[in-house]
């Protein structure tokens, strides 16, 4: 499992840490890794590791390494609150990495119902359950993640959505 974001209070890395403990206790058998620059909560992450949390911190990475890192992950978990358009989620989907996001994400409407994504409430147990669910059929989740990225976030899909929005704004039909 991968948390890849700025380690800032609004990203709620503590939920990821608590989820990792639940996955360990359930003997799910996955590695949980935090990657990202300090945004104020890195000391908390390091303290959790010293206290025995089943996570690893791999530091910050260069932007050019993000897709490679996402390809290596089984699931991207982004527990950030009210994150309107988290690019890392789109990047994960584009390389076939399933995602778990908070129900306050601005992408909820586009992610809900896909076998490649799970939308959960803020409880660490909800995250752990979603991860376990995605791991049950990883091949299906991977294929669904790529399909979701192409259907909802490809340049063609974005252009079509914008044309529709503009047409609605001016009271006409889309071209």
Describe this structure in words.
This protein has 175 residues and is of the alpha/beta class. The chain has one domain (2-170): Glycogen Phosphorylase B (Rossmann fold, 3-Layer(aba) Sandwich). Helices cover 49% and strands 12% of the residues. The protein has eight helices and six strands; from the N terminus they run E-H-E-H-E-H-E-H-E-H-E-H-H-H. The strands form two sheets. A three-stranded parallel beta sheet has the order 1-2-3, covered by helices on one side. It has a three-stranded parallel beta sheet with strand order 4-5-6, sandwiched between helices. The radius of gyration is 17 Å and the shape is globular.
Keywords for this structure?
175 residues, alpha/beta, Rossmann fold, 3-stranded parallel beta sheet, 8 helices, 12% strand, globular
Q: What topology emerges from the helices and strands here?
A:
Elements: E1 2-4, H1 13-25, E2 32-35, H2 42-50, E3 55-57, H3 66-72, E4 76-78, H4 87-94, E5 99-102, H5 108-111, E6 117-120, H6 124-136, H7 138-153, H8 155-170
Helix pairs in contact: 1-6, 4-7, 7-8
